[in-house]
Amino acid sequence: MRDKRYLMPMIASDLDEVEAVERVVYTFPWTRESFEDSLNNGHFGICLRNDADALVGYCMMMLVVDEMHLLNLCVTPDAQGKGVGVTLMHEVVQIARTHHINSILLDVRLSNHHAIRLYKRFNFVVIGRRKNYYSLLNRAREDAIVMRYSMSYSVSVLQFSAMKHSDEYGRCVSKKTFLLRDAALDSMREHPERNRTKARAYGKS
Q1: Most-buried pick from 18, 131, 135, 152 (CB within 10 A)?
Q2: Which bin fits 11, alpha (ψ -120 to 50), beta or left (φ > 0)?
Q3: Cα–chain-centroid distance for residue 168?
Q4: What are phi and psi of 111, to 5 degrees?
Q5: Nearest-angstrom CA–CA distance, 153 and 80
Q6: What is the DSSP letter of 173?
Q7: Is the Cβ–Cβ distance between 179 and 7 less than 8 Å?
Q8: What is the pTM of this model?
Q9: How far is residue 141's CA from residue 198's CA, in Å, rounded to a whole number?
Q10: Higher pLDDT, 2 or 157
Q11: Residue 83: is its pLDDT beyond 80?
Q12: Is the pLDDT of residue 125 over 80?
C-alpha cells in the first residue's frame, strides 16, 4: 500500500493541530501564540501531512539577513522513525538554498540524541553550548547544543538516494519527491488558501 505525504506552508488554520501535537511531544511546548507571532512576523512554517490529511510533522524557520535559524522541528510520536524528520530537514535546506542563505543555526537539548543524530546526518556541526538554556521539571535546567550547517556542505539528491531503506531516519527517502521548490514557495505563501489544493504528493512504496 502506498503511503503518500505532502508538504504545505503552515497557515493559521493549522495551528489548532500544531498546538495539540506540540503539547504531546514536548514537556515545555510552544504556545499557539508563539506560532501565530512567528507567522505574523514573516517566518517560514512548514507542515507535513499524510494522505488522510493528518499532521505528521512541522517546522518553523526564521531568516536573518544571510542566515536561517531553525526555531522548531517536531515529528508526531507515531510518525517517528519513518523519515518525517529527514523530509522536513531536506526542505529546510532547500528553502535556505533558494534564499541564498549562507548557514543554518539551531539549538537542541543536550539530551535529545535522536535530533542530534538527524542534524549530524545533514552535516550540522557543534559550534557551541548554552549553559542552562532549557527548562526541566522541578526547576532544573539543561544545556543547549548550538549547531551550524554551512551551505558549502550541501546534501545532494544523490546522497539522499543512497540512503538505506532500513535506516532509522532515512527510510524510503530515495523515492520521495520534495516540494515547495524555489520561487514556488513564495507564491504559495502569498496565497496559501488558494494554493493548498496544488500540493504535489509523494509517497513511499
Answers
A1: 18
A2: beta
A3: 17
A4: -85, -5
A5: 26
A6: G
A7: yes
A8: 0.74
A9: 44
A10: 2
A11: yes
A12: yes
Cell of residue 124, nine digits:
550540522
- Within the chain, strands assigned E span 3-9, 44-50, 55-64, 67-75, 103-109, 125-135, 141-150, 202-204
Q: Where are the domains of the chain?
A: 3-204
Instruction: Give the pLDDT confidence of 65-74 residue by residue, as tens digits.
Output: 899 999 999 9
* Burial state string for 28-56 with b = 16 or more CB within 10 A and e = fewer than 16: ebbebebbeebbeeebbbbbbbbeeeebb
Residue 78: exposed, middle, or buried by beta-carbon count in 10 A (0-12, 13-18, 19+)? Answer: exposed
Inter-residue contact 108 to 195 (CB < 8 Å): no
Check if the beta carbon of residue 110 is closer than 8 Å to that of residue 142.
Answer: yes
Cell matching residue 12: 493559521
Beta-ladder partners of 71 = none
Domain 3-204: what homologous superfamily?
Gcn5-related N-acetyltransferase (GNAT) (3.40.630.30)
